Automatic annotation (TrEMBL):
<comment type="similarity">
    <text>Belongs to the histone deacetylase family.</text>
</comment>
<protein>
    <submittedName>
        <fullName>Acetoin utilization deacetylase AcuC-like enzyme</fullName>
    </submittedName>
</protein>
<dbReference type="InterPro" id="IPR044150">
    <property type="entry name" value="HDAC_classIV"/>
</dbReference>
<dbReference type="InterPro" id="IPR000286">
    <property type="entry name" value="HDACs"/>
</dbReference>
<feature type="domain" description="Histone deacetylase">
    <location>
        <begin position="30"/>
        <end position="295"/>
    </location>
</feature>
<dbReference type="InterPro" id="IPR023801">
    <property type="entry name" value="His_deacetylse_dom"/>
</dbReference>
<dbReference type="InterPro" id="IPR037138">
    <property type="entry name" value="His_deacetylse_dom_sf"/>
</dbReference>
<keyword id="KW-0378">Hydrolase</keyword>
<dbReference type="InterPro" id="IPR023696">
    <property type="entry name" value="Ureohydrolase_dom_sf"/>
</dbReference>
<dbReference type="Pfam" id="PF00850">
    <property type="entry name" value="Hist_deacetyl"/>
</dbReference>
Length: 308
């Protein structure tokens, strides 16, 4: 990894990430507007650290998705059953938003290759599978970016670490039996999705798990995966819906456990010289400040470790 040049922080963001989609989802979308403001307020980033993604091409969207499904997205012709499964009303602005998010993750993966770590303010759309959307996810940004790295021969052993409270079922569906992409999901066993796909490694957690048990399981499994797989690129889905304040999470973990979780991932990547792309995933605490502070904590840990 001698080509990595540290001390450069790159973050994907566009105003389209904040699109309210529908009135009932305005609050969760607000975090995409507030995170950049908070990062700048705390002096962790300035305008030079942000880049504006473009609309991902049809071909890019098809890297790991069924072209028929992608065509129906682009042409707004998905059947009503699939639209209900996704949970958002289909619109051009929604499709454009997904395409911007996807390009942001692909570009930030390239920035991570150069600088060690890079972020997408949005993304983590891990419920989108090969030929379906689900759970407010239409195109799987990190899975597609993994497909991009493989196609360009920029990586050959990719690890996707998904620590959102919800299983990365779409990612598992896409890479089932895949030899070059290893999917690891550590999630609430009794939480959505209730019919789960099989990742290469799934750790299903009980609702009342303690901080110590969670962190012990995570550290042991990360250590084992990195030793056996020796990945040359990592994608990290860093959802903060594991928090005790989260209204959907049920894991009841403290903010300190969330901080230590991020430290374990970043330290493992850093000490092994492995680039890591981070998409922010879920967060549904009733107080928006709890969501924003937890996400910004993820940035701070990486910035401090990588001397950004």
């Amino acid at each position: 990894m001698s080509n990595i040049r540290f001390k450069v922080l790159k973050i994907a963001f566009r105003p389209e990430f904040v699109h309210p989609l529908k009135e009932g989802h305005r609050f969760p979308m607000l975090k995409y507007e507030l995170i950049p403001l908070q990062l700048k307020h705390e002096g962790m980033a300035d305008e030079s650290n942000f880049f504006s993604p473009e609309l991902a091409s049809f071909e890019s969207c098809c890297l790991v998705h069924d072209p028929v499904y992608v065509r129906q997205l682009f042409e707004l012709t998905l059947d009503s059953k699939m639209v209900r499964r996704i949970g958002f009303p289909l619109s051009q602005s929604l499709i454009d938003r997904e395409r911007y998010i996807l390009d942001g993750t692909i570009q930030s993966a390239n920035y991570a290759r150069a600088h060690g770590v890079a972020f997408n303010i949005a993304g983590g759309t891990h419920h989108a599978g090969y030929d379906f959307g689900e759970g407010f996810c239409l195109i799987n940004d990190q899975a597609t970016a993994a497909g991009y790295l493989l196609k360009q021969q920029y990586a050959s052993r990719i690890l996707i670490i998904d620590l959102d409270v919800h299983q990365g079922n779409g990612t598992a569906h896409i890479f089932k039996g895949h030899q070059q992409v290893f999917t690891f999901s550590m999630h609430g066993e009794k939480n959505y999705p209730f019919i789960k796909q099989r990742s290469h490694l799934d750790i299903g957690l009980l609702d009342d798990i303690s901080d110590a048990e969670y962190l012990g399981l995570l550290e042991d499994n990360l250590t084992d995966i990195f030793r056996k797989l020796e990945p040359d690129f990592v994608f990290y889905q860093a959802g903060v819906d594991i928090l005790e304040t989260d209204k959907l999470g049920k894991l009841n973990l403290s903010i300190n456990a969330c901080r230590r979780r991020d430290e374990l991932v970043f330290q493992m990547c850093y000490k092994n010289g492995i680039p890591v792309q981070v998409s922010m995933g879920g967060g549904y605490s009733p107080e928006i400040k709890d969501i924003v502070n937890a996400h910004c904590q993820t940035f701070k840990i990486a910035i401090d470790l990588y001397n950004l």
